[in-house]
Amino acid sequence: MDDDVLRITGLRRCFGRVVANDDISLGVRSGEVLGLLGHNGAGKTTLVSQVVGLLKPDAGHLRVAGVDAVRDPAAARRHVALQPQSQTPIDGLTPRAAIEISGRLRGLSSRDARAAATALAEELDLGPWLDRRALPEGGGLSGGIRRLTGFAMAVAAPTPLLILDEPTNDIDASRRRLLWDAVRRRGDLGSGVLLVTHNVSEAERIVDELVVLDRGRVVAQGSPARLRGTQDSDLRLELQLPPRGEDPSDLDPALPVRRRVRTGRRTLLIVDAASADVAVAWAASQHAQDRIDGFSLAPATLEDAYLALTARPDTADSDDTADPADHKGPADEQLVRTAPIREESDHA
Amino acid sequence: MPETPAAASAAEELTAPPIAPVQVSPWSSLLAMMRWSLASIGAMLPLIVVVQAALAAGIVIGFGFLIPDITPESALFLSSGAPTILLLTVGLVIVPQGVARARASGALDYQRALPVSRPLLLLVDLVVWSLIALPGLVIGLLVAWLRYDLSFSFDWPLLVLVPMLVTTMATAVGFAIAVTLPAMLAQLVSQVLVFFVLLFSPITFPASQLPEWFQTVHRFLPIQPAAELLRAGIASADFTAQGRDLVVLSLWTAVGLLISTRALVRRG
Fold first, then answer.
1. Domain range spanning residue B47?
2. Nearest-CA neighbor of A8 among A221, A199, A183, A151?
3. Is the N or the C terminus of chain A less surrounded, counting Cβ atoms within 10 Å?
4. pLDDT in tens, B230-243
């Protein structure tokens, strides 16, 4: 049985000559949290806007819980709850009233909507602000509490497909943790979750699958472990280069590097844990010779792989072969170009 | 062997039925959206009602100063026109400014992405702004009665139906302006409309005082028909409306509703 709550096939959307979404295909199953990663302008919000019927695709298919969302967007919307990237318009409302209204609009009885507001306040630690009114021009409630309220409104009632567009913006660290747990819980309770975020390192903990968009195209998709493309024991050696300095790791064949990405004055090197002592000794000697300003060693993360995937292809060195992600279809060509294991890019 | 709570929970999740789509009656959606809309006007709500009432009274009293030794006939003409100005101002000025703001802030798109029928968003504005405008209508008539010692002859069916139709027309056209034009332009047009309604429309003065070509223009605009219909409802002994007025007003209402609904439903 097809248990996809969202199935996107060959989606294309242009704005004039700019291709915002180019042949995008992806799926979200019930109970799955799919992370959608990408830089600003990668086409994430355009994609979301098509799912909820704010934009019409130029080509491709969109099915939400089996409903053709291109032909019948109103029916599709009844299966979706969205927390948009912009702030939720709650001026004049308390978080409690906002959550209750959202619950009522999503089919809860008055009593269940009231209970949902109380339960969500507990879950997200919103209690002290629950009855404080949001005032115009950002008064009354902070941006973080407004964002949490927007999240609570989206999850006020169970929904087949939950779309969260940058849900953690403005939120403090402790409540961000509560929010991530709440997102994971919605997945565990049966919702399919499409999570759009820049926060790669935090999202990694809770997503089942990841899709990376770059300039409107899918450049990689797969589980976090596959996308990371490294062993759990791999380490990241970060070099801080001097202004206008050469990257000393560039030409040193003795250095056992699995992947290299340069971003501005930083170079990220992924090295095997077994080679850590060699790499650190090398970095220390480079530092002693003033070829680098400093260095640090830490566990390799998904963020490193993400940076490699979205590095600029026009400056990428594609002479290497291995590929960290489970890539599919038409995105392959770009993925190979942008995510070789020894990759170098000079984007600032 | 008894099941542990964790195992029971896991089993429950595995067998959890699929989540059903939203099923809400239009009435429940309307009430929830109205609660939201009224709350977003918030603390300004009583103030807006008071200002509307003051505006109604102000038109009746203020315009009277323009006419020295005002006759009972002129006073009746002026007073029976004031409610039209009020209803048109709310629909053509306040509504488009609010909608333009909602468009610019993303609030309109947020509501368009909700699992509610999109034309309902227009209906909510219609109901909310009618509720806000109607007290002003009553107060305007009350002030006219006190100030000029007028006696009105109400045509109740007209008096109930016409304000609703005028508010619907003005709100729908105002909404259409706000969703069709860029936000800044919509705000500018609504400002211009205030002057047009107040000073260049035969509401508080007879159409015969306008140049002939301008009278012709007004025969096709909804303002004069709205004024004449409402006047006939307020002072039926002195004024009558024509069927043509109803046709013109209804056509403008239909066009406003059509453009607004299309803009709400349409995908970019």
1. 27-265
2. A221
3. N
4. 999 999 999 998 99
